[in-house]
Design brief:
The protein is mostly helical. It has three domains: about 210 residues, no CATH class; about 80 residues; about 45 residues. The protein has 14 helices and no strands. Helix 5 packs across helix 12, helix 7 runs antiparallel to helix 8 and helix 8 packs antiparallel against helix 9. The longest helix is centred in the N-terminal third of the chain and has 28 residues. It is globular.
Amino acid sequence: MTFNDSNTNLSPKIVWVTSIVFSVMFTLIIWYFGKNLQPFLETLLPDKGSSWYYWKLPRRIPETMIIVWSLYAAHQFSAWFSIYWAQSNLKSITSSKLSLYNYAVLSINVIFSIIHLIETHILFDGLAQDVPIWTSQGSVILMLVFVLIIENRRRGFFLGYKVEKPFTVKVTGFFRKIHMYVFSWALVYTFWFHPMAVDPQLLSGFIYMFFLFTQMSLAWTRIHLDPRWIIFLESYVAVHALIVAVYNTLMHGSADIWPMFFSGFISMLVFTYQYGLKTSKRVKLGLTAAYSLFLIFLYAPKPLGLGREISYLIRLEFSWIPIILYGLVEKKKKNPDKDVKKFLSKAQLILESFIQKYEDKDFTEINQFKPFKEDLKNYYAKKQDLV
């Protein structure tokens, strides 16, 4: 059964604006009711470092975790089923109108956002009680890497230059086809990993999560592919990372590493993301110059700059985030030697067959090779049938 994706007059742009307003308002609701979580917050254990997750109760309650995992599973499989339906039924990749998929996923995300808020105020714990913190952080990194691969053929990988191999049209198409399932897992999993508490780090993360839910909900519309919106979502990570790093330094005495996160993610905007926009060279150079001035200000001695220790500059801390993201993309590349060997193995069979058939023939008679051309067609046709 198929459904027409143009059976509604509601504009995706109106829904996008409404979703942004909802994201801001619901974050304010989380903040407003946050004072009611004080009995839970008073029981939390002291922060024990980067591998420790602070916002979880001291004792695991099995009944609570059964409920939380069940809610996560319901949210996750609802999203996955919606994606499967859309890929099976929606013919148009981009539409100026909303489809059943858009309505379904918007409703799913709103309903489960309300449920998660209620769950936090009754039980508090999220999935973090059962799984390590790096799984949530890793899911976000995985999304950013996928976007780098998917956007490579449009905006390039670095300074607008594209990586042609192995990210061919076919390979990019594969990542594009599965990215909805991967992103859905990353978003829903991270969403249920955290309780909806009022800490600035969590509030910054949840409004980002609502923005990403908006992106997921508006797939198969033109808004979903708008490069300005995509770049905003990619770049907001810098803001969130800045808030997290500064807060941890001020409140928990963690290492002062906000420059590494902020300068690293902003460098992705400067050297990769901005090349997805149709801006002039002057604008691109201007943004690059502004970033360079920021780095100078960051490491310049006081009172001329912030006076960050020069040892961090020597260690090139501003390049660590890009190295991680670009490095993960490199790991996803296929082994070119393996591809070459595969090609040569097939070519060798064809060459041997050609030599055996035409070894003693006169090569000036071109027409004699027509049967071999047909043999090749039949050979590959049989291969396709087997596939």
